[in-house]
Amino acid sequence: MNWLVILCWSRRNPFVSIFLLLYYLSSTVHASSSPLSNSSIVPFSSPLYHSSDSLLREIKTLVGRHPDKFSIETMRGSNKGYLAEIVVVTYNHTKRQINKPKIRVLLSFGQHGRELITTEVALNLLHFIAGERRIPYYDSQSVENILDNLIIKVVPMENLNGRKLVEAGDSCDRRNGQGVDLNRNWSVDWGKKEKDYDPYEENPGSAPFSEPEAQIMRKLTSLFNPHIWVSVHSGMEALFMPYDHKNTIPAGLAGHVMKSVLEDLNRRHFQKKCLVGSGGGSVGYLAHGTTTDYMYDIAKVPMAFTFEIYGDASASQNDCFTMFNPIDKATFQTVIDDWCTAFITLFKEGTKMLGGAQLSVSDKTTFTWDHEDLHVEDNNSNNRDGLELAVQELRNYFRLFFLSTVLLMIMFCSRISKNKFNDLTLTLNGS
Ligand SMILES: [Zn+2]
């Protein structure tokens, strides 16, 4: 349905069209909480991929082998009986201390259940960081020098419940265990829907941070206060920066620095084949309520990115496993090697840029972290997010009111001109 159709109807049956218009407008404003099920069930089994259990088990064993470098925690949250837990691995080389403040990096993988390759990159990146495998392109001493400047928190599987659904056979599902897209459940421009909105793909939940996974990630972010954030996805090859909800990049030095870091990665490691720029400007659609927009706008993370690490556009629409994950060993290994290497370059260049550009490294306070922080309460929210939501709702209702008023005025004018035309016709006929 578009505006022209509505305006044509308004001449014939204004009351029906008002109703239809209001319904249409309100449906673009309000979130739907009833996900549709149009998924195709494509069972998969591939020797290249770990199950969620075996992947997390391998990570725990790896951490146990390097107690001087790694620690691991599980953060838990719940909402109305729905439970979620997120494993967080921290790299911080405690034996080698440097005199300057360390750059804090937060990486998240597996926010969408069907993107299995991202969690394999997480596992391999940890192997590389631990020094158990050699990173292509870099010698081990250079890697150690780069890592000395960093504290890195890795979330290897943000959406464990959603991943379990995929492992149970629904390889097209990207949402969490309650049917919510975790990359639409954050507060920046939450709930707005585009014309091509697909509730199966993009259900934003009943409110910003309605989902425990998003609550946990928000709490992790506020405690850790990172300088660099990367959300790792698959479905295409791209290096994205804010914004997702509009077709622009941040103004000024911050946007310029982020873009130059991404262009450098694209040139060095991907033969310029990745799309680079704002998510909203490059991907072909706007996304509202995303994690990366929140990280940049609200959490004030100076470098906030979304990496899309693999996609097969030629795969059948029903074959999500092939669409989002490499299926042959050579491609699988290339994706792992290229992206793990790109992360090391990001750490190196990002550290340099953050220091050189004075991008809030010193004025971001250090983080606190203790055991009490590992559980997130039900319906956790803070006043700032509540205020943002209220302003956004107000803006949406004002937009609705304004459009309705314009339509009523058009109908009113149209009726007056029609009456005048009828009067004129009567007069002419009568004369
Ligand atoms: Zn994704």
Architecture blueprint of SSEs:
Blueprint: H1 3-12, H2 14-29, H3 52-65, E1 70-79, E2 82-91, E3 103-109, H4 116-130, H5 140-147, E4 150-155, H6 160-167, H7 199-202, H8 212-224, E5 228-233, E6 236-241, H9 252-269, E7 275-278, H10 279-282, H11 291-297, E8 303-310, H12 320-324, H13 329-356, E9 375-376, H14 383-430
Helix pairs in contact: 1-2, 2-14, 3-4, 4-13, 9-13
The chain binds zinc ion (ZN).
Describe the structure.
One of its GO terms (cellular component) is extracellular space. One of its GO terms (biological process) is proteolysis. It comes from Carex littledalei. InterPro entries: At5g42320_M14_CPD, Peptidase_M14. Belongs to the peptidase M14 family. It is a single chain. The chain is globular. The protein has a nine-stranded mixed β-sheet with strand order 7-6-8-5-3-4-2-1-9, with helices on both faces. Helix 3 runs parallel beside helix 4 and helix 4 crosses helix 13. It has two domains: 47 residues; 330 residues, Aminopeptidase, CATH 3.40.630. By secondary structure, it is of the alpha/beta class. It contains 14 helices and nine strands. It binds zinc ion. Zinc ion binds next to loops.
